[in-house]
## 1
Amino acid sequence: MKLMNKYIRKSLVLAVIAAAGFAMISCEDEPDKYEVADGVPTVRYIRSPKASASDSLIVAATTGSSICLVGDNLRSIYELYFNDKKAVLNNSFMTDHTMIVDVPQTIPTLVSNKIYMVTQSKDTVTYDFEVTVPAPTLTAMSCEYAPVGSEVSIIGNYFVDDPNVPLLVTLPGNVEVKDFTSISQSSISFVMPECSEEGTIDVTTIYGTTTSTFHYLDTRGMLFDFDGVTGLGNHGWHARDIISDATSISGKFVQLGDGTSAMTEDGAWDDTHFAFEYWCGSWDTPQNVTSGDGIALHNLVDFTDYVDMSLKFEMYVPSTNPWSAGAMQICFEGYDKVTISGYAIEGYNGTIAGPNAKAFNGEDGLGDYGRALYRPWTTNGSFDTGNSWITVTIPLKNFNYTRQGAMATEVPSSPGDFASLTFFVVGGGVNGTECTPIIKLDNIRAVPNK
């Protein structure tokens, strides 16, 4: 036994020595490991990081752009500032003679038009360089149908409210916003003034003016306003409530859920309360898909550039009935997937399907057909719109999920695939918590992204 213990102790000692030796060898095997250099840096010039423009020297750049410093001993740079804003250094793009770095997105508070290079020993070297701020960018409006007197926000970047040149927001009809509630670099909030005209919005700062791609009171590409376009919208197996009430934003809307019907944690099938469908066509022979109730949606709205389009709609989820389970599945379908009758269509020689949910469900060999899955409750476990309406935007290129949230094997790939439309809160592949949601939808439209 003593001999065995001695052997074990000796083996452990040898193992420790071997491990230590391996660790030292491992360190020695990293000759290219990045280390901050001593001394101070020298910048000879700054150029574009693109090889095609590497001979173009630059003395200024906009926030968020990439630049390349060229000089000597640049690995001695421990911290880098543009004016008073610290840059993020990536040592994968740092050598003794070049450094690629992004100009910080944040607008400088104190403008000196200098780069400050700080070494590990706190020595500072400066280099003259101007950071320019672009004109504002406008990404979205919290509600494109915001009623008068409501608070609304514009989301984007570079919203600068300079004391000498105040930020200006101009609505359609040359209506100027006066009552701002907050302004930050990425958001503007204000009380909606009287404005009844549809159109774009301008935001002007000291750095320029930008016109929105989105429209206030947008009617472009309108599919369902539930007040006249394509009838009331119901056109399929089920009739959904088309109503108006004290919450109405622009007339009637369609409502999913009645406030008492349960949505199970896995979003079980309930087409009685949580589905809205519009299947094109008629009971005529041949079917009428070119006009009236049952018109194919691609005959109502031009989907030629569907790749650069988005589906938009206004949505209201009251705080009394939040949404915490099930995915809103939004599915466009062509004649080969569904029509109201399945009868012939003049001028169309392809497959014509009758009323069914097979493509939606991926049944009978129809595969996994793409649709959008919208489930905002997954961020915090529950979702409501704070008793107000919001605008939801979903790019048509994102209609690429199966019913259970996997990537689809077939997606809408031509204008003809946008003939019918189904909204159905069901499944989605992510469990939530049982709820009794109310989801109101209005102004369903397909609009260009730019």
## 2
Amino acid sequence: VQCTGDTHIDDHHTVEDVGIVIGQALRKAIYPVQSIERFGNATVVMDEASVTCDIDLSNRAFLVYELPIGGKVGTFDVELVEEFFRAFAFNLPLTLHLIYNRGKNKHHIIEASFKALAVALRRAVAVNENAGIPSTKGVL
């Protein structure tokens, strides 16, 4: 991903815009869902850190973000991690839960959260020919 933004002010809009664009691109690739698992989850460890991600490709936007981190990693405001995931979840859309299990190093916690999302997403889009349209309403 390459993005040029107003980082001379701060990184907020740039981080948010990247989440929006990635979410919209995946929306075009995934919806309407058919013959996929739809649900995915993963727990990823990064050294001492552990983060769990659960997702539902429900075409309904929701974010549960329980990563108790703040401050900075280098010059990056850690609060923007939540902004990325919110923009991503609401533009895909999907239901996304990110839950902190343990860890102290902010970089490791953040990296584990992104990797957990990637693994959960891979599992959710796995082809399952028996799944049909995975919804009791018949449409996603």
## 3
Amino acid sequence: MTLLSVNLNAVAQLRNRRDLPWPSVVGMARVVLDAGASGITIHPRPDERHIRRSDVFDLATLLREEYPEAEFNIEGYPSDDFFDLIEAVNPAQVTLVPDDPAQATSDHGWDFAGNGNFLTSVVQRLKAPNRRISLFSDPDAGAAGASAAKATGADRIELYTGPYGGCYDDAERAAVELAALADTAKAAHAVGLGVNAGHDLTLANLPAFQAAVPGVEEASIGHGLTADALLMGFAEAVRQYRAVLDN
């Protein structure tokens, strides 16, 4: 079974269109957790264009006080500010991404070999009891990438599924992307890394992904789930994504 972590960045981005407190990021976290999500994912960026620093602390308090079994996954580039935030909040999982601050969204994984020394030092700094470290991975990282990722001391990789998600109208290309994802996941498992996945996963493309890439421990889903929630509500969207992931 693959656990569902709901990314709330899109909720925060909608809220930030006005100087008003709604939609509430904390309130929506309650909704999705009550509906069966296993955790919450956020990716705070320096310009606070969606998740704000205050959201990070508010969500940490919510999970600690009301949902102690739920996991808090914080994504980000390992800057000094990010280090300080992680130490202050102590999430269950840290997902490191090689984002430039100006990027609209994550669009590539780490060069595990080229950034190996840097990532090793970052992982050592962030490792703590009851905190796992995951590294964002290109879908075609393969065996060499998996071995280099393992050498950093990380616990998991997160497969970047954006290219697969972009194949919604091209079944032939989707099959190629799935094969690359499956190879990288298999290589990661072979060296003892756990595997997460995220980016542009939807109710339409999740079943094929689940069939082709077994053993994914957690899927972090935000944009697709939020789009579906506009039609069916967040609680029902979570239930439907859970139904797919549970199979």
## 4
Amino acid sequence: MELIAAIERQLAAIGAQGLTRRRRTAETSCAPHQTVDGRAMLAFCANDYLGLAAHPAIIAALQEGAALYGAGSGASHLVSGHGRAHAQFEEHVAAFMAPHIPDVRALYLCTGYMANLAVLSALGADQNAMIFSEALNHASLIDGARLARAGVSVYAHGDVAMLEGQLAASTASTNIVVTDSVFSMDGDLAPLPGLLALCERYGAWLVVDDAHGFGVLGENGRGALEHFNLSSPHLVYVGTLGKAAGVGGAFIAAHASVIELLVQRARPYIYTTAAPPALAHALLTSLDIIGGTEGKARRRHLAQLIHHLDTALSLKRWQRPASTTPIQPIIIGGNDEAMQAAASLHAQGLWVPAIRPPTVPANTARLRVTLSASHTQADVAQLAAAINTLEGNVP
């Protein structure tokens, strides 16, 4: 059948470039030590930065939520699916983010991907709007900009001066600057203070996707806004809840009028079944941990692990960009060598993914190491020794 043959040619072309993606099946809970495809593995690939995905208190809260509210919501939020747990979580997370956004309100969505689609498609619904997108933004932000009716202009990675030129030249009725806070493949931070200053000067929105910062950055885990001590009504903040928060979904925090606009206009929110309320119930416990003494202790331990990896690695050919976040890339270059490195580590019981184009630029294929507060220093030492040996053995 020619239709199938055409698909198979596409798959062969992907394989010829060393870009075939493969899934592995985890048989135990998300944690550093897992059983994967029948093998015991030490994992450095999850975004469970605070080690909350298997936290006993959160598991108990999820079980309690299921007993209270059942397994599913049954409908979209605007029909009958908006439960008490959803409302409580939105109230609590809005209060948590209140120091950074005046008159804040929050909205809970099923995933971070949907949250980004919702924000950009709603704020950018006017053809006279313009979205200014950071060059290394996550795919969900790129797709959100495509879904919007607004024009799109891309500015170079971290280039505040370039962005200012674009904003100064804009004749759009609504200007929207959008950026990741922590870039998922490099672990570096966006220059948010400079970006916010520009948005306030030119009357633009600043949409911040803090997927990899919420729960991790800031004294109280409020993310990049707390890290940089930012507060402004120009901010529209997206926090992901399936990474450091350990559960699932995402929230948008912004001025109450912005959130009401999303309720009325954001198609990814309006036209989908609400997430199970048990998840929102569990997230109340997760939020308490993030903002409490245990969350602070976990962030301190995570910082120690990041420092330990930094001192233990002794790379000569491969490169490790400076990163103070749990995302610690080891840039190798070619796709084949990156895949061979990941395979070698896997053979040693170390689960570290190889990331290749188009997720990252050509010739920057890498090992993406992610650290969790559930790792130990011995875990990190084992990984560093294996990488050092592996690099030394590659011709």
